[in-house]
Amino acid sequence: MFGLDPTYSALLIFCLLMACAFEFINGFHDTANAVATVIYTNSLKPWVAVIWSGILNGLGVFWGGITVAMGISSLIPVEVLTDPNLAHNIALILSLLITAILWNLGTWYYGIPCSSSHTLVGSILGVGLAFGLIADEPSLKYVNWSKAGDIGLSLVLSPLAGFSLAIFLMYILKQVIKNKAIFKEPDTNLPPPTWIRVILISTCSLVSFFHGSNDGQKGVGLIMLIMIAIVPSYFAIDQSKNLAEYKANIVDIQTVYSRVDVSQLSKADSFEYAKVNSLVSDLNTKIVKSTSFSDFGGPEQIAMRKDIILIGKSSKKLMESEDFMISNIDKKILNEHVNEMSTLTDYAPKWVILMIAISLGLGTMVGWKRIVKTIGEKIGKQHLTYAQGASSELVASATIGMTSILGLPVSTTQVLSSGIAGSMVASKGIKNLQGKTIKNIFIAWALTLPVTVVLAGGLFLLFRAIF
Fold this sequence. Notes:
Shape: globular
Order of helices and strands: HHHHHHHHHHHHHHHHHH
Distance between the termini: 21 Å
Number of strands: 0
Helix content: over 70%
Structural class: mainly alpha
Radius of gyration: 24 Å
Strand content: under 5%
Number of helices: 18
Largest sheet: none
């Protein structure tokens, strides 16, 4: 398989199966986020709700793009993924996979809503930091701290947004809707009025779809990490692209940079300018005599991937600087061509997306009862009302959809749980929350990152020593 010997082929298959297992667990771990409200308001039978949610989760993976996936895969700089010793790369992949799966299973077993996003991000940070300890030049640079900061901010702010917006939305509903049936607890075993049922099913559908579009991309990013680490000669660059088009792109980028008045640049900008020119020249030298990306071997593709990523980062810094003065036309050309170059590295084959969509969809259809019970019964002291279910899911779907567009992973669990908490507070104040459950959710939220960082880093160092 991909030119690997039987042992490494088996390890590659094992890693892919574990990535699918992570996404499968993610499915049944997070199913409750979408179906709890329709089940506890009697809007849908449980088996109908989970099957419907599973289908929409799968569709969300296909239609959600790959922006979040690339954000996940870019947490680790490319040099960490491309150790010449293939066993070391497999050690890295196994460390983060085992950590993510163990923590997700553990929190699911105890019925604690926990963030799969936090879990995966912590695992990736852990192996990046551990690599920095044993690198030839020990450093903290083996984590993409800029991207980690963006993701961390997203994971911290999203539950606060869910809590606050749910309170606000509940207030609006009370002012606008005169039919007070929506604010009452559902009658046992009786479906809600048709109009309320339509709203609740619609919000359930939106959360399911956007969960697939965001969380499914994390699985896609995980698969791409595996493929780049183990078989870079096939996956470091999108070989389906037409090389001739990218040759022209590079020439246009060089032409724009040649028109820059370097005397006007600051010291920092001059450094970035020199670096990006060197990178573009290096990339042009690599591809000028070739006709296809498949002509290049693994090390060459890795070098090209690194050049393209660094060209994008340096160009972004320059275009954000006030001292980098180029015409609007040149800025547009540079933006377009740099973005076009990034499509060589920011991609995922259709089979990867299909594999994750199936894994997430199937996982959504099983194992959902533990977390559903926590969300439906243990966050607030009252039974979930129609308004609380609809408001929390509207907030969750809007938040997840927005962060997917921005390319940031967000925790569906945290957003929806905090939304339900907010809706409970809006109904009867802070006393309407069950302190023990909120405490457990907060402890899991606080512990996830440090535990997964330490566990993944420790496993990586152990596996490196063994392999």
